[in-house]
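Appendix B, example 12.
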Amino acid sequence: MKITSVKTAASTGHCMHLWVKITTDAGITGLGECVHGGHQSIAIIKELEERLIGRDPFAIDAIFEETRRSLVFEGGFAGALITALTGIEIALWDLKGKALNVPIYELMGGKFRDDIRVYADCEVSPGMNMAEVQAVVDEVLEAGFTALKVDLDIRAYGHTGSETGWYEKDKFNMTPNKWEHDRMVTLAEMVVKAAGNDVDVATDLHTRLDKHSAIRLARDLEHLKLLWLEEPVPPENIDVMAEITRSTSTPICAGENLYLRHGFRKLLETQAVDIIMPDIPKCGGLSECRKIAEMADLYSIPFAPHNVSSPIGTMASAHVCATVPNFLVLEFHWFNRDYWKTITDGGEIIENGRIRLNDRPGIGLELNEDVARQHQYPGTTWFE
């Protein structure tokens, strides 16, 4: 069996959802998804197609690593290139599973668990009152979720909600004042109260704070026993992240913008965080993220992947989560988005806050192109 074409399409959703379709001379196809690569990843995949045609699609790790290393001077460690390779890699796993008539989790050594716990990312922000918070949390709990996450930073500073970091008075301010700090603590307290004792609550800061503000906030949240406090500072400065982690009993989580095992190595070796959250359809794909999880397991660090993908990328991530011992929980970022249930042939894949893995080959879902194309990303082509 040989690869005959590698084509892309893209839909809107939480972000650009970039589909990668790989076809073979045996008539078997595989579908992958990658996120946060943008038009750059589309261009990279188009350029890579020629070198992939004629390759054995079963040689997944070899194709990924040979291609990455050959492009080391073009950015083979991070960014859009790795995201493009991730979409290709996931499509190859889907293809191989279909060709062998087995789910991806069987190709990766089998399951530790039959279903995957999922948490819902919620539309809650500072400035909401208790009734507003309770209404949002109740909707999540009624859907069966036992874990959720809220953003503490967005609108805490009185800005418009964009994630550029530009706050009041046109200043980039990483040090919240007392009023801003208290708004974040109050929101976390309201969410934990609304959720109750049997629900885990995680919180996110999107790397906005400086070291001292992060330590103060983490300590003031300790009484809430949060699932985690996510990325209080940018993860590039691992020494600062480690100092924050060691200063508090609030678990610190990071890693959604790191790439490959190389990006996580020092973070894990120094135990600079309590939990890691690689974005599987972005930072290297299924095989690479399984290796990242296994590295983390050496240090007793749980694996809780970031995830803004459609059901295709989400289910692909679930296969990895099923095959590692230190899985904690997987993110779900499409709550109340109307076409989540119709964009694949699988319907609603989350029931009572869990994804149950089936025995369909490959990823186990097929893209509903009629639905997906209704949301085609502006300026893109459709598998041409």
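The radius of gyration is 21 Å. The chain has two domains: 3-101+369-374, 106-356.
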